[in-house]
TrEMBL record:
EC number(s) on file: 3.5.1.4
Amidase domain ranges (all copies): 30-458
InterPro entries, alphabetized: Amidase, Amidase_dom, AS_sf
Enzyme class, UniProt record, top EC level: hydrolase
Swiss-Prot/TrEMBL catalytic activity: a monocarboxylic acid amide + H2O = a monocarboxylate + NH4(+)
Protein's organism: Mycolicibacterium arenosum
Organism superkingdom: Bacteria
Protein name per its UniProtKB record: amidase
Pfam families assigned to the protein according to its UniProt record, in alphabetical order: Amidase
């Protein structure tokens, strides 16, 4: 595989690459070697922080030898190179530092259920992507591995916590990479990097074998992609529950990849450009992108109305802060176990240390109160959406933010999230409520940077159908960042 051929493949999505293998035009091994060339050509992005090239080569060779990829019977993404986020996507025997110096020597003892599903679908795993410490930040600037660069510009963050995955996909290194989302960690990098980022509804996927859920149900796992059909195909791969899960999402009516070939019934869409949290007004260019999407949806026959559900933003912010302090205290315990001693303060980033210290002091009563507040605000949000099917809002309230904004200590965990929410706005409400949410690259700033627009609904199928309609009405597929592996 030469550099020119590798560059040409960069423009294909995962379904398109798999089709080449199924037709016998390329092998999985050839696709992988092309992806490795693209990793090497974009090292300056610092998106891939763990090379698993030999592991990927062995898997691709075995897939090619078995013959299961020919004819497409192995599935729509079989044989495609794939990267795992270095958090929440454990691969047995592979390093998993989770962006933390305290876990720099940690090796996963077992694979996450979702990773097993990826492997069963024939995705060829050959590396891991950068992430902030324990996924705490909506930017990817860990002191352990260094900042990941946004392919669109040197001065803007790729977002986080799935920033390494987003940068790799945006630059054409791979067609798709895994991500996780606790307050926007798939959708924020999708907005910053001009990608499709779907956060599934709560319990659509499993946290087996290590946990029942993450952050009391706030966290969901999925992927960053450039096309809607890739997002749908990958959701088909991971949708479902594992034995022993505490709860599960209702089974979809059919495959998500099939659903996007059908137009949805006319949806009742509520839309606003204002934030649910106090802070600066939404950037006018972001508002314009949302309004353009609203006009396109109305033209497609959907019923679009101005308005939005309300929540007690103070209660939401307090609850999110408490849940994160306890989560960080729990991860401190993991670091203690891995190191065989208590980690020291200088082994954590300053904002993490603030959360850890608060977690040590958080009472059981406060934790239970945070869970109750999340549930109460979910009911308030749902009541506000009564009579409507979909919420259309900004993904970020600004264009892609600069570095050194969303990872800085603010004295308290609550103050940290006040700064985050002044930029991210609506993203965390999808995590709180458990609703599905998707960010689509429907706008650009006057400087040519991506702007994400977000749709929320109770289920993923209608979001993917609307996304497929908007992908045609307001296409983004020909946009390329400054750093593009297909150059």
């Amino acid at each position: 595989m030469n550099a020119n051929s590798a560059a040409e493949l960069a423009a294909l999505d995962a379904v398109g690459q798999a089709a080449l293998v199924a037709a016998g035009d390329l092998t999985a091994a050839e696709l992988l070697e092309a992806a490795i060339l693209r990793v090497e050509a974009t090292r300056r992005l610092n998106a891939v922080i763990t090379d698993l090239f030999d592991r990927g080569r062995a898997q691709a060779a075995e897939l090619d030898r078995s013959g299961v990829l020919r004819g497409g019977g192995a599935g729509p993404v079989a044989g495609v190179p794939f990267l795992l986020k270095d958090l929440g996507a454990s691969l047995a025997g592979a390093p998993e530092a989770m962006g933390s110096r305290a876990l720099r020597g940690y090796v996963a003892g077992e694979s996450a259920w979702i990773v097993e599903r990826y492997l069963d679908a024939g995705l060829v795993v050959f590396g891991k992507t950068n992430t902030p410490e324990w996924g705490n930040h909506c930017t990817t600037e860990p002191s352990l591995f260094g900042a990941t660069a946004n392919p669109w510009g040197p001065d803007i963050t790729p977002g986080g916590s799935s920033g390494g995955s987003a940068a790799a996909v945006a630059a054409g290194v791979v067609a798709a990479a895994s991500g996780g989302d606790g307050t926007g960690s798939i959708r924020v990098p999708a907005s910053c990097c001009g990608l499709v980022g779907l956060k599934p509804r709560r319990a659509r996927t499993s946290f087996a074998p290590g946990a029942g859920h993450g952050l009391e149900g706030l966290v969901n796992e999925h992927a960053l992609t450039r096309t809607v059909r890739d997002s749908a195909a990958l959701l088909d791969v991971v949708a479902g529950s594992a034995p022993g899960d505490p709860y599960s999402a209702p089974a979809p009516a059919g495959p998500f990849l099939a659903a996007i070939t059908e137009s949805p019934a006319a949806q009742r869409i509520l839309t606003t450009t204002a934030s649910p949290f106090p802070g600066p007004a939404t950037d006018p260019e972001v508002s314009a992108a949302v309004e353009s999407a609203a006009a396109a949806l109305a033209h497609l026959g959907h019923h679009v109305e101005a308005g939005a559900p309300t929540v007690d933003s103070d209660e939401v912010a307090d609850a999110i802060a408490v849940l994160h302090t306890v989560s960080n205290a729990q991860l401190h315990a993991l670091a203690t176990e891995v190191l065989g001693r208590e980690p020291t303060e200088d082994e954590f980033e300053p904002s993490t240390w603030v959360m850890v210290r608060e977690g040590f002091r958080t009472t059981g009563v406060a934790y239970a109160g945070a869970i109750a507040a999340v549930h109460a605000q979910t009911r308030r949000f749902a009541a506000g959406m009564s009579g409507h099917d979909v919420l259309l809002v900004p993904t970020l309230l600004t264009g892609p933010p600069p570095y050194a904004l969303l990872d800085q200590p603010r004295g308290t965990t609550r103050a940290f999230f006040d700064v985050e929410f002044a930029t991210t706005g609506w993203t965390t409400l999808a995590n709180v409520t458990g609703w599905a949410a998707i960010s689509l690259p429907l706008g650009t700033t006057s400087g040519g940077l991506p702007i994400g627009v977000q749709l929320m609904a109770r289920d993923e199928a209608v979001l993917l159908q609307l996304a497929a309609q908007l992908e045609i009405a307001l296409p983004w597929g020909d946009r390329r960042p400054a750093v593009w592996a297909g150059s």
